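Final paragraph of the annual report: two paired records, presented back to back.
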Amino acid sequence: MLVKSKIILIGLNIKYECIALVDSGTRMSIVDKDLANKLGLEYTGRKFKIISFSEHEVEAMEAIVKEIILENVSLKYAVVAVTNIPSKVKNILKTHGVDENVIIGLLTLERANLIPDTATGKLKKAPAFIL
């Protein structure tokens, strides 16, 4: 079962709230470039490539979101990947009833101490361990 979650992104310009796909195969959370520009994200200057669901390699830029709220957990100054999400991927996301502009990745989940539960399709709290 796909895991979905409510997420709020707060940038320098606006706040954006949606239901997004939780993708345990994606390291960084992804924000579409048009939304990133509306939010007013701050770019770090780091550029890299990511491979989309449709197996296209796309350029991405690292940016800082002022605050992400995920399952009532506030994450200040969260790092995300900003890219032009391909239309084929946006269509797949829409088909599954999630927002086409945001994908939640592992770094965001780890920082919030959350894990995807594929049995329920929701996120659940995970204890933090110190070894």
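The closing record of the year follows.
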Amino acid sequence: MAGLPIQLLGRSGHNYPFQLYPWGQAFRGIGGIYAVMREKNPFVQAVYPLSNDVGPGYSVQYLGQTGDLSQRPEHHHRQDDFQRVGATHIAVMTESSKLKRLAIESDLVSGMQPPLNETNHG
């Protein structure tokens, strides 16, 4: 199943290509970066754009990386937090190199400042 293509903007100004899926989508056991997303209420407009907004319909709540997308974020230790913030979608970008994943994750977290990354729980 192909996801909806979206771009996430890092602090460096680089746009990273992700695929957006409904929450609960199963993935193969490959490395990648993932973004826990929340669909915004289409009837409410923010007065000020937030750095974690992605287009008109979604906001990034958490960014992470893993060597096995089949295990994260569905089995993430912050699952309760994901439910609390109303996670509705997940965006993924595959990348086999751990060094590249860590660099991309850092760039995106610095640029988008997702609320759940600010607590340093991993």
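Residues 4-117 form one domain. This concludes the annual technical report; the extension proposal builds directly on these records.
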